[in-house]
Amino acid sequence: MTQITPLAASVLILSYLCYRIFRTYWKLRYVPGPFWARITNLQRILWVKSGKSHEIYQNIHKKYGDFVRIGPDAVSISDPAAISTMYPMRPGFPKSKFYRAFMPYIKNGLLPAIFTTQDEKQHKQLKSPIAALYSLTNVVTFEVFVNDVLDILFQEFDKRYAGSQTSFDLGDWLQYFAFDVMGTMTFSSRYGFLETGTDVGGMLQAIWNFMLGVAPMTQIPWVDKLWNKNHIVSMFKPQTSSPILKVVADRTSERQQKAASNTTKETKEVNKKDFLSRFLEIRETNSSVPPWAITAWTFSNVIAGSDSTAVVMRTVFYNLLAHPDSLSRLYKELTGYEKQNGLSRPYPRWSEVSDLPYLDACINEAIRLHPPFCLPLERVVPEGGVTICGQFFEAGTIVGMNPYVVNRHQPTFGDDVDSWRPERWLNHNEEHRRKLEQSVMTFGAGRRVCLGKYVALLEIKKIVPALFLNYEIELLDPKSYEVENCYFFRQKGINVRIKRRDQKTSILAQESKKI
Ligand code: HEM
């Protein structure tokens, strides 16, 4: 028998490796991009870990154009004209394994959610029964919950800051507010962030730490599968569970027990109102809903809906405070409306502020400037391949659009894409405005577009007028504002002092009742 010499073996292995590298490189050779992206995903991990991936993505698109190869199988695309092809309303363009990394690993396996599932059948099974709850018509029925939480926010502001003029980070309070609103809407109870003015039980920090750990894994999902979502490995690792998942599970079982006894009048009343009671009702009447759906739905609400909304709120407040001209124009719009039509106090109603042009322009500009999710929203090219803006991609290729980059597409939004300019949403005909709106990727697009968009808009359109009409807010140092990004993109350092506005001059519609 002929012996394989070590030299021959080395040559064979080397040739095989060269062949693999060449094949990997060749696959998407026609798409420009950084050199290492042609053969490995390692660079993408480093981008995520740098905390500056939003800037890196913007720079590579500036350098290479609308199509950039970001990994052996992955392409980032920046032209908004591609949105309808890559994110269609019909099924058949599924999410990539990127999203699997976000699924909590519990003792029975992975807990899927509407946001994270790749399985389109499961997505339908989870989303269809509850989609109507998130329609604008239904969401406005939750306005009363936002008012309840605004009550607490105002009480705390008055008690802690308005009289003493002590400075504080408004961004932290907007986050507490967003979480407590979502808790109230979902379970009719708050976490207590506002009452205590702190991150109770370190829950918010734990969510951020979770994001920091998961974000690099999204770029190499096979490592996540081996290391984090593996039954054998998990036996040797300390058991950690998401603190939010624990809260969600506790509140759900409390409610289920109460509903089972169904004795008190209070329970019956609550059951008519919040998301949890509506979810329980849906499950009772729909046998196709799996038992774990309640946890998946409530978990989705809290995890997908709280921090993200806080990010947009911070962007609106920071930019209005840092641009006094904008703030003064908004204030004039609100008080002008109040003079003519009256505004409910202390918090204007949704019906009064849902359609104010300058408020809308400021919120649209904040949504454009600072999307909370800032890596490509990855999809897998289906069987038969697809042509995107004239470029063909074969089945299995991962394509994605990064909201941060798409929202800064110069030919669409103008040369000053990095600047705060709410006016870009005004002074144009309706058709142009609609085109701009459809070119913003902050809420995603198509079949997997954000389910909670109206919940977020309700909160934002309530809190912005409420705070500016009732308080004078002074931004102490615009330069202390900082952003950090893993996949989730958040800010800190909105240090302010506040005082109550002179009630006589600003309250023109005292008599209008609070909801
Ligand atoms: C300003 C606030 C928000 C932003 C910017 C935002 C952004 C997004 C984005 C970008 C997606 C799509 C992700 C993808 O395609 O990869 C998404 C999906 C989703 N969001 Fe939001 N979101 C916000 C608020 C909310 C709220 C308040 C809720 C719940 C009440 C929520 C629930 C969901 C759910 C359930 C999905 C999955 C939808 C599906 O796959 O069919 N979001 N969101």
TrEMBL record:
GO MF, one annotated term: oxidoreductase activity, acting on paired donors, with incorporation or reduction of molecular oxygen
Keyword Metal-binding recorded: yes
Family of the protein in this entry: Belongs to the cytochrome P450 family.
InterPro entries xrefs: Cyt_P450, Cyt_P450_CS, Cyt_P450_E_grp-IV, Cyt_P450_sf, Cytochrome_P450_monoxygenase
Protein name: Cytochrome P450
Listed cofactors: heme
Species of the source: Elaphomyces granulatus
Keywords: Heme, Iron, Metal-binding, Monooxygenase, Oxidoreductase
Domain of life according to the entry: Eukaryota
Database matches in PROSITE patterns: CYTOCHROME_P450
Pathway assignment: Secondary metabolite biosynthesis
Entry-linked Pfam families: p450
Residues reported in the UniProt entry to bind heme: 450
